[in-house]
């Protein structure tokens, strides 16, 4: 469709890797897009040079893409859609100014993966806390196996848009779907959120295994048992177990656990090679959501009584200075048990 057929403006909050790639994708598809960043340098560079100097800096952005530094809170409902693409721990601060203004007119879309440490909230929970249940129930989670650089390079990608409101999910599908960016819909936002958050923790473990020199047998076992942990946690929170067999579940987990394009995998790899947590984090240059999510999942699993042995070992390595080799030995020396039991999903 031509740009003139795309009615309404779209706001992307956050000019990191994924925010930039989504804003660029929408602008290329003919939408009028504002991308917001706190950084004046990024804003000026996007507007004047059509480059994000810090994220996806090799990509020349569509000239029509507009970067902004400030948003009048009262104007938030003028947008057709608001895409949130900031780190999870910054979501509350970013959205709070709109608490007295946002209504159900814009499509509220999350491209965030993580859990708020202070509250244990996933994105939809946080939205309910700030804006109320009606807006939370209409919120759409956009997730799936999608490295930002590959989306920006127009390489074929498939993701899922999940919402309790099927019409909202379908609306987001129509906005984002293109010849190379396929969007499926789902009615299970909590399942997609749990999977999108916890896969980053499992990816740290996968990177650590690679850093320790383990091979594909070990990696296959780790990813499969990681998926089991994600499924158990999700079902405990009310998710549909089928969700974890799809793009937002095993698809995203496979992607994140199998490539050094993943910041979380890279973090784990550095730890496996003996780097300290502080040094590994410093070397990344951008946020690895799995670091904070590991702490939140640790608290959540204790509160819900869900066993997450891989995530627990990641937590101990990151926050209790446990050596990665010791964490590995503790995992493989656990008591033998059935792979499945009748109460797995109770």
Describe the structure.
By secondary structure, the protein is an alpha/beta fold. The chain has 2 domains: 3-187, Rossmann fold, CATH 3.40.50; 197-332, N-(1-d-carboxylethyl)-l-norvaline Dehydrogenase, domain 2 (Orthogonal Bundle), CATH 1.10.1040. The chain is built from 15 helices and 8 strands. The protein has helices at residues 17-28, 40-49, 91-95, 123-131, 133-138, 148-152, 166-176, 189-211, 216-236, 247-257, 263-272, 277-284, 289-304, 309-319, 324-332, and strands at residues 9-13, 32-36, 66-68, 81-84, 107-110, 140-143, 157-162, 181-186. The chain has an 8-stranded mixed β-sheet, with helices on both faces. The radius of gyration is 20 Å and the shape is globular.
Give a summary of the structure in a few sentences.
The chain has 346 residues and is of the alpha/beta class. The chain is built from 15 helices and 8 strands.
């Amino acid at each position: 469709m031509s740009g003139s057929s795309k009615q309404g403006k779209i706001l992307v909050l956050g000019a990191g890797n994924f925010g930039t790639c989504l804003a660029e994708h929408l602008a290329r598809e003919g939408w009028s897009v504002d991308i917001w960043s706190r950084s004046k340098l990024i804003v000026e560079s996007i507007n004047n040079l059509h480059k994000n100097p810090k994220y996806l800096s090799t990509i020349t952005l569509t000239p029509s893409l507009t970067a902004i530094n400030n948003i009048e809170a009262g104007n938030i409902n003028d947008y057709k859609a608001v895409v949130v693409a900031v780190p999870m721990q910054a979501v509350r601060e970013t959205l709070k100014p709109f608490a007295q203004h946002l209504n159900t007119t814009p499509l509220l879309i999350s491209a965030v993966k993580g859990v708020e440490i202070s509250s244990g909230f996933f994105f939809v929970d946080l939205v309910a806390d700030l804006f109320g249940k009606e807006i939370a129930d209409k919120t759409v989670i956009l997730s799936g196996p999608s490295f930002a650089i590959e989306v920006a390079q127009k390489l074929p990608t498939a993701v899922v848009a999940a919402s309790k409101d099927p019409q909202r999910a379908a609306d987001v599908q129509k906005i984002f779907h293109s010849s190379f960016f396929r969007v499926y819909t789902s009615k299970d936002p909590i399942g997609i959120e749990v999977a999108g958050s916890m896969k980053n923790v499992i990816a740290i473990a996968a990177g650590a295994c690679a850093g320790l020199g383990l091979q594909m047998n070990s990696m296959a076992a780790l990813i499969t048992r990681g998926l089991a942990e994600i499924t158990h946690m999700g079902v405990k929170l009310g998710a549909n177990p089928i969700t974890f067999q799809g793009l937002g579940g095993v698809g995203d987990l496979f992607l994140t656990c199998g490539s050094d394009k993943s910041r979380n995998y890279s973090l784990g790899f550095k730890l496996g090679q003996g780097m300290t947590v502080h040094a590994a984090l410093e070397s990344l240059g951008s946020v690895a959501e799995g670091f904070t999510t590991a702490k939140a999942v640790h608290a959540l699993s204790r509160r819900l009584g869900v066993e997450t042995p891989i995530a627990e070992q990641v937590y101990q390595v990151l926050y209790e200075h446990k050596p990665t080799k010791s964490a590995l030995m503790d995992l493989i020396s656990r008591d033998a048990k059935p792979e499945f039991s009748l109460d797995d999903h109770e």
